[in-house]
UniProtKB/TrEMBL annotation:
Its EC number is 2.7.13.3. Residues 226-440 form the Histidine kinase domain. It comes from Bradyrhizobium betae. It catalyses: ATP + protein L-histidine = ADP + protein N-phospho-L-histidine. It is a multi-pass membrane protein. It is found in: Membrane. SUPFAM superfamilies: ATPase domain of HSP90 chaperone/DNA topoisomerase II/histidine kinase, Homodimeric domain of signal transducing histidine kinase. Keywords: Kinase, Membrane, Phosphoprotein, Transferase, Transmembrane, Transmembrane helix, Two-component regulatory system. This is histidine kinase. PANTHER family: SENSOR HISTIDINE KINASE CUSS, SENSOR HISTIDINE KINASE YKOH. One of its GO terms (cellular component) is plasma membrane. It is an enzyme of class 2 (transferase). One of its GO terms (molecular function) is phosphorelay sensor kinase activity. The chain crosses the membrane at residues 16-39, 147-165.
Amino acid sequence: MDGGPAVMIRSLRGRLFTGLTAIIVLTGAAGGTLAYLWAYNEAIEMQDSVLTQIGTFAMNASTRQSQPVGGVDAESEVVLLELGPMPHGSADDRRLWTLHDGLHDDVRHGRQIRVSLWSRPDGSRFAVAQGDEIRVEIAGDMAIRTLLPFAALVPCLLLVTALVIGRSFRPVFRLAEELDVRRADDLRLLPGESAPSELQPFLGSINGLLERIRAMVEQQRRFVADAAHELRTPITALSLQAQNLDPLDMSPAARDRLEALKSGMRRTRHLLDQLLALARQDLASSEVKETVHLDRTAMAVVADLLAEASARNVDLGFTVAEPVSVSADPVAMVSVVRNVVENAVRYTPDGGRVDVGVYRESGQAVLQIEDTGPGVPPQDVERIVEPFYRGRRPTGDGSGLGLSIVKRFVDRYGGSMEFKNLTGADQTGLRVIVRLPALD
Ligand SMILES: Nc1ncnc2c1ncn2[C@@H]1O[C@H](COP(=O)(O)OP(=O)(O)OP(=O)(O)O)[C@@H](O)[C@H]1O
Ligand SMILES: [Mg+2]
């Protein structure tokens, strides 16, 4: 898949993540602030009630002296102030005396304090006081702890969100990947069962399109096959007519023309045969699976080509012929073996050698052909299986379709083919290996 759709998906993912991050962070912040304020107020109220409790104890205590109240939490700096039966002492103490019983905010020695005033039955008064700074500090300390769960939870939630979003989008990327690595002629439908329901309409559309492409490709292949097939009849008729001219008397110049005409017709017929063989490979309806004995097929092909080989003094023979069979279309199999052996014979110079081998190797039926020809230039090896490609310096007649037929055949029947240039001390050559799944 190229940039466009991938970018859109990424931004979809980004949008989801940004939105959820904003929600999580805002919720965390709002929740944290509320929890902090609530805990802070609670802590202040609790300290008020501590002041009141200390006052209650002091009411019944025997001591009548101002003193710091130590004990549970020395740092809370609560002080018991004895104010006496009448206002006396500093201005702050006098003012305190005038306040009525209960909780008040006041100032003492220039510091804000919270104070709880009490009157004893005998008329003497006392106060329990605490500095505001320390109260605020204690309340702040307590309230800040309520933020801890939020501080831990928000990053965890963000992480989980990122993971969940990443996971949810995985099927989309898997789908893109699957389509990416597909060969152009692989028009199988995409499996839909495991995909999430949001992708189903999309999958349905892609599969619909694949189906239409498949029908169109099949139609075109059938057209090529039909056209090649239909053209064979008139070409055969023309060849016959040309042959009928053979016994007639004619000038050497006319005979030359006749020979040229006949060889042109042979080439055309060969091209049509090759085209038909190639088109048949692609037709879904011509998928035939019969038991084919590869060794026997090879022997028949070799026997057929022996005359042509010996005419050019090429030593064509078998190195090994193990009985091994494959499941394939027998007609196509003959055309495949013929094309490879024919190439070896045709591209090997006069007096050369062509060795054919058929054997079984780790569950594969192997057809191996070695010749003493020029081999294929490395830069051509990839391309010689393309239809109509005949190399940079084509020699002899040929349509350039032979190896395409072989390639499509091995692809169709789950095999493979391999070319290796042989470079010996004083000779060159090409080794072609065709592998097909062997039958037991
Ligand atoms: N054994 C070989 N030695 C050297 N070159 C080869 C050999 N086999 C194939 N080639 C090269 O690969 C090209 C493609 O081969 P392919 O069989 O597809 O087409 P062709 O032989 O040219 O035509 P066709 O087989 O359709 O009559 C050939 O033209 C030739 O250049
Ligand atoms: Mg060929």
